[in-house]
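Quick log. Single chain, no ligands specified.
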Amino acid sequence: ADAPLAFQLLIYPATDMRAVAPSHTRNGQGYLLTAESIAYYRGHYMAAPSQWSDWRASPLLAPDLSRLPRALVLTAGYDPLRDEGRQYADALSAAGNRVQYVCFERQVHGFITMSRVIDEARSAVALCAAVMRQALQA
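-> predicted structure:
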């Protein structure tokens, strides 16, 4: 038997392969993850634009997001993926799921891996660990 998912930990998630959220333009240059690199990665994942709207690659477009496990969605303020992460958190909540959304406004994509030099990265890791621990013990 398959074990049900207990928790979703989504750290600056890519939830819409169409890359149409305003943050893709606003934060698409100069902040580590660029619009050009997103297009490059997407092209290696799914080359045909007709595939970008498939909900299995773009979960923000899923017809039904109900009955999903609790989620922590974490984004960074200067990240091209910021808006679609927020939109996905909002969609999960609207579908009746328990969601916590946190945006580290002053950070860039990838900041969570820089905990040796960025205090907010340490805070983000601690938050993820605490919320995950709580969710998995429930």
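The longest strand covers residues 99-108.
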